[in-house]
Amino acid sequence: MDKKQRMQEIYTILDTLLPKDIQFLDQRDPFRFLISVILSAQTTDRIVNVVVKDLFAKYPDKQALSDAALEDVEAIIYPTGYYRNKAKNIVACAKALRDRELPDTMEELVKLPGVGRKTASCVLGDIYKKSAIIVDTHFSRVVNRLNLVDTKDPEKVEREVASLLEESKHYRFSMTANLFGRTVCHARKPECEDCPLSSLCPSRDAFLKTRSKG
Ligand code: SF4
After folding, report:
1. How many domains does the chain have?
2. Domain for residue 169, yes or no?
3. Is the N or the C terminus of the chain less surrounded, counting Cβ atoms within 10 Å?
4. In a domain, 197, yes or no
5. How many CB atoms lie within 10 A of CB 192?
6. Which residues constitute the domain of residue 69?
């Protein structure tokens, strides 16, 4: 079976097994969603979902957030880590978007403060329902273990996965592979024994061997 066929099989298994609507961040308003994604770097979505409730209770929209005092925003988002940088970026984003809509292209989104390809892809896929491959740590780990790619470089991962799968499936695969990484193919102890992808996974035997030794 070549890589493209394997990819199709993996896609279908995950698509069938996992929920249709996968959302990690609670906020659905486009601007609030963008801010949530920026805050989610290097922390958990659970923490972000709690912190943004306080943030948007005090600063409900981009106009309010663009007028906020940096120190106050820092204090609210402190639990998400890297709070100085994040506060600077989200207030700058609010200022940049104060009088316009959130853009719907990769090119425009990555011009916003603190917005890289991963954040932009989340917005494109989740808010605008456009084709997007979201490469975060879970996604990258899963596609590497499945030997769909052999690189940790996010842009290469994105390009190589894109070349294996039809555009209409990109976003769905981003979400299913990500959820699968969080729930089965864990960073430390992947659940290879009960994994629905085990017959398609070249890493399985190596993991099982280490376990039987331990
Ligand atoms: S067999 Fe193990 S390493 Fe391979 S995808 Fe499943 S959980 Fe991950």
Report:
1. 1
2. yes
3. C
4. no
5. 19
6. 1-187
pLDDT in tens, 44-80: 999 999 999 999 999 999 999 999 999 999 999 999 9
Enumerate residues 6+ apart whose C-beta is below 8 A from 181: 137, 138, 139, 141, 142
pTM for the model stands at: 0.92
Q: Whose CA is nearest to atom 2 of ligand 1?
A: 192
3-state secondary structure 81-121: CCHHHHHHHHHHHHHHCCCCCCCCCHHHHCCCCCCCHHHHH
Q: For residue 1, what pLDDT band results from cuts at 50, 70 and 90?
A: confident
**How would you label 57-95 residue by residue, b for 16+ Cβ within 10 Å and e otherwise?**
eebeebeebbebeeeebbebbeebeebeebbebbbebbe
Locate 158 and state its tokens: 């994105």
Q: Is the pLDDT of residue 214 over 60?
A: no
Mean pLDDT of 115-139: 96
Q: Is residue 149 part of a domain?
A: yes
Q: Is the CB of 177 under 6 A from ligand 1?
A: no
- The CATH number of residue 5's host domain is 1.10.340.30
Distance 201 CA to ligand 1 centre (A): 6
